[in-house]
Design brief:
- This protein has 247 residues and is an alpha+beta fold.
- 43% of the residues lie in helices and 17% in strands.
- The chain contains eight helices and eight strands; from the N terminus they run H-E-E-E-E-E-H-E-E-H-E-H-H-H-H-H.
- The strands form two sheets. A six-stranded mixed β-sheet has the order 3-4-5-2-1-8, with helices on both faces. It has a two-stranded antiparallel sheet with strand order 6-7.
- Strand 6 and strand 7 form a beta hairpin.
- Helix 4 runs antiparallel to helix 8.
- About 2% of the residues have low confidence.
């Protein structure tokens, strides 16, 4: 899908974004091209820049505009705009930061940042995933990012280590009869094992939407819907989750 297929207002916004100082490319999020037949799907546009980026050129649009860095080092910043009645999410991406984390991913290295809306946290290789899945609709970026063999191996092992720790914490909370604590740790463990499986399958992911479905771990939902305050029963549920996720 290229810009010529966009609604006129979206195509105009792409041109506006591409014309901002220091912008080198504008991308359409990878998932967007697959679901455009649904009229209610928001548009996601990535703005890749080199040097200092000032989003003041977006101030005349209806919506909210954040500054670079407002959303953390990985998400960076962005805007939530309404353009001719269409909802558009704009994300800023410092090209030097992206290149750094792509190189780290190729070496099998990554970090995980806590971020609102993420159970397991956001891995730094999400920036590589965005590059791999996104479509350049203005400007240019270097070649496609293939899934690194080292990341497939190292990522799977590391995410499973995270999940083991989450399951241990769930067991401690179960012994106290803490339903909320058990639910939280098991949900996070599920997301962590899902990340591990997607690494093994060399499937990029940029968020946790439908991550259990993609990793074939939806049986975890059945375990989480029958939690009780009885410590013995809670402990049994944790053991069931451990068997599903790790055995």
């Amino acid at each position: 899908m290229d810009k010529s297929e966009f609604p006129e207002a979206i195509a105009s916004l792409v041109d506006t974004l591409a014309s901002l100082p220091h912008v080198v490319a504008v991308t359409l999020a990878g998932s967007q091209a697959l679901v455009r037949e649904h009229a209610d799907v928001d548009w996601d546009l990535g703005v890749y820049y080199c040097g200092e980026f000032d989003p003041k050129g977006l101030a005349h649009f209806e919506g909210a505009v954040a500054a670079p860095g407002d959303w953390g080092r990985i998400m960076n910043g962005g805007a939530r705009l309404i353009v001719d009645g269409l909802m558009v999410d704009v994300f800023y991406r410092d090209i030097d930061e992206v290149r750094h984390w792509v190189r780290e991913a190729e070496a099998g290295r990554f970090e995980v940042d806590r971020l609102p809306g993420f159970l397991a946290g956001i891995p730094t290789y999400a920036l590589a995933a965005e590059r791999a899945l996104g479509t350049v609709v203005a400007g240019s970026l270097e070649g496609a990012v293939d899934y690194p063999d080292r990341l497939a191996e190292e990522g799977a092992a590391r995410w499973r280590d995270h999940a083991r720790f989450s399951l241990e914490r769930a067991g401690l909370q179960a012994a106290r009869g803490d339903v909320a604590g058990v639910l939280g740790h098991l949900a996070r463990a599920g997301a962590e094992v899902a990340h591990a499986r997607l690494c093994e399958a060399r499937q990029w992911t940029v968020n946790e939407k439908e991550i259990l479905e993609r990793a074939e771990l939806t049986h975890l939902n059945q375990i989480l819907t029958v939690l009780h305050t009885d410590p013995v029963t809670l402990t049994q549920r944790v053991m069931q989750a451990r068997t599903l996720l790790l055995d």
